[in-house]
Design goal:
The protein has about 350 residues and is α/β, with parallel strands linked by helices. It is built from 14 helices and eleven strands. The chain has a six-stranded mixed sheet. A five-stranded mixed sheet has the order 2-1-3-10-4, with helices on both faces. The relative contact order is 0.16.
């Protein structure tokens, strides 16, 4: 089993962190003088997402299962979901300290730390990138460009999941949002900085709260609407508090696998190959399966059965939002560098870069 519930029940989060820190992740890679491992390599991986995010967890559990299989007994995985080992905001620090070996992370959560990842959620780009997920696949120019930039911070994206997930739309309850004009004066839960800035141009008051607190925020009226992927809606049962979804592709995210760059470079060949084989499966199947199978055949019917009215964005609103996003593009390019930013946008849109 990928998730060893019994093991987790017998070890506290503090105990696990203390043990891993004391032992040091490097012990997993201790070798004999000739470079041959004297024991199986154990990799520790994490995600903050809980099993209720069935769609997003599908690819992660598949990756871990395949890594255990392709490791042939020489590589094994201890995988912790639900933030049981480290919380979402602690994952990058845990990776840097060696407490964990790899992490799955949602790009929208860490774009302020790693600006190049903003390309996965850039307003006005995400709809096209979602329809053409292969542009983010392992080995593509966009994948290589992202890793070129991440390397400056000693980070390596093993896989971007083969594309971004279906864009995040605007979901509302009593305060109906059915157009861009309806956004004026609304308090809206938004995670990504790029999306927050884009929506502020339409009178939105962005509120950043964790997905775990979104249900109560809607119930209590702390927010009038949420910008969310449908996985968040289903994973947190938000459809119980929602009445409308305005399908304006506002932002998006990828769930990528990250390691430290120097850790990746220092891995022995069998471990590297096991990771690459499992990552190839994840790259080819994760986003595509969720977008093409789980969302249309399970999640959207569940939302509609709950009585949520689906409102398609008008062509006029789509054009208006895309035009307003140009200022966000210019701001983002200043963060990553004009040349790098323009090249990333061109690659994401399928243009010659």
């Amino acid at each position: 089993m990928t998730h060893d519930r019994a093991r987790r029940a017998s070890i506290t989060r503090r105990d696990a962190l203390t043990t891993l820190a004391a032992a040091g992740a490097g012990l997993a890679f201790t070798t004999w003088p000739l470079g041959r491992p004297f024991a199986a390599t154990t990799l520790t991986g994490v995600t903050y997402l809980p099993p209720s995010y069935e769609g997003l967890m599908w690819g992660m559990t598949g990756f871990v299962d395949r890594l255990n299989e392709t490791g042939g007994g020489e590589v094994s995985v201890e995988f912790y979901d639900s933030g049981t080992l480290v919380k979402a905001d602690e994952q990058v620090s845990a990776l840097r300290s060696g407490t964990i070996d790899f992490m799955f992370h949602t790009s929208s959560y860490i774009t302020r730390s790693f600006e190049i990842l903003g390309i996965t959620g850039l307003p006005g780009v995400v709809d096209d990138l979602h329809q053409n997920g292969e542009r983010l696949a392992m080995g593509t120019p966009l994948y290589e460009l992202i890793n070129q930039e991440l390397a400056k911070d000693n980070l390596f994206m093993l896989s971007g999941g083969g594309g971004i997930f279906e864009p995040e739309y605007i979901w509302s309850g009593a305060q109906k949002v059915a157009s861009l004009d309806d956004l004026s004066g609304k308090r809206v839960r938004v995670v990504g900085y790029e999306a927050s800035t884009a929506l502020e141009q339409f009178g939105v008051a962005p509120v950043r709260i964790p997905s775990s607190e979104t249900y109560l925020a809607l119930q209590r009226g702390t927010v009038d609407a949420v910008v969310a992927n449908i996985s968040t809606v289903i994973g947190r049962s938000l459809q119980e508090q929602l009445k409308y979804v305005y399908r304006l592709p506002t932002t998006a995210f990828a769930i990528s696998i990250y390691l430290l760059k120097d850790r990746w470079d220092g891995l022995d060949e069998p471990t590297r190959q096991a990771l690459l084989e499992a990552a190839k499966w994840y790259d080819e199947n994760s986003a595509s399966h969720v977008n093409n199978e789980i969302y249309p055949n399970k999640y959207w019917p569940t939302v509609q059965d709950a009585g949520v009215e689906v409102i398609e964005a008008s062509d006029a609103d789509l054009e208006r939002f895309t035009e307003s996003s140009q200022g966000i593009w210019e701001w983002w390019k200043e963060q990553v560098g004009e040349e790098v930013g323009q090249r990333a946008i061109d690659l994401a849109l399928g243009k010659q870069a």
